[in-house]
Amino acid sequence: KTDVMREGFCFYSEDMESKFISRRRLYMQLKSAIAANNVIALYQPIVDANTGSLKAVEALMRIREQDDSLISPIEFIPLAEETRLIIPLGERMIQLAFEQLKRWCDDGLNIRMCLNISPIQFFDPHFVPFLLKAIDEYHINPKMVELEVTESLMLDSLQQVIRDMEQLREMGISISIDDFGTGFSCLSYLKELPVDVLKIDKSFVAQLSIEKPDEILVKTITTLAQSMGLKSVAEGVESLDQARRLKELGVSYLQGYYFSRPVMANEVRGSYDL
Ligand code: C2E
Ligand code: CA
Ligand code: CA
Ligand code: CA
């Protein structure tokens, strides 16, 4: 019996130890990725629901490993937020995305750049100055920049968030609410926030035409967006059927594997089949 218990205990602590080591390893990996230019931006097209023409791209972060494989943000964003490394990582993404946006703009391609901003980064006092400086340095038209934030941002210091958003908005930067509908938050914040776009979460899109309630939800969100003068984007569009249905439901823009996975900048096309 003692043996079993001892083994049990050993197993447990080894497990904790390996968890600690892998977190430690990931932390070091993130830190060195920032220094060694191994933060990568992939871009996923966002298309006009009526024409399929390219309207914007969403920049999605990856970490390049020694063997050139890419680590997904699902694996590192939680740790990056806990350790606040998300701030330098996010700053690097802003630089990469603006560099690319400048290149596209010089080539005559007028598309918007959507950037995911973690609440940790948004609340960092250096965030707004950093962004404005980068806009200046890379000669970016602020009208081409859209920041994706989640409803969790609205949970605290709403007044400060409103002030920051208004400042960004005055410069011409757009704000979108990512994963809209999953946050269980009170919708009244929409009245107060200077928001431009609602991004319908992919969980609602996945169930379209399978489950009636999701269709009603998507319809309700697009109607809400329209009546408040906002645009709507559906993410996670994986089939032509979904694309057509979303268009019928009044969604303005579409994004998903049906059009393209997140890809390297040179693989982004000017228009997509619809
Ligand atoms: P998100 O902002 O909701 O981004 C959309 C995610 O859905 C992306 O995953 C994208 O690759 C995936 N996706 C796109 N189309 C489809 C589809 O048709 N089907 C399915 N099943 N998935 C699709 P990804 O790139 O792994 O990013 C995951 C999350 O990590 C993002 O979710 C975002 O919350 C976060 N993230 C990514 N890049 C950044 C970044 O630069 N900064 C911050 N703070 N967070 C980021
Ligand atoms: Ca997003
Ligand atoms: Ca999303
Ligand atoms: Ca998400």
TrEMBL record:
Coiled coil start-end: none
Top-level division of the source organism's lineage: Bacteria
Domain EAL as annotated: residue spans: 23-274
Protein name stated in the entry: Phosphodiesterase
Organism in which the protein naturally occurs: Marinomonas hwangdonensis
Classification of source organism: Bacteria, Pseudomonadati, Pseudomonadota, Gammaproteobacteria, Oceanospirillales
Residues shown, of full length: 257 to 530 of 530
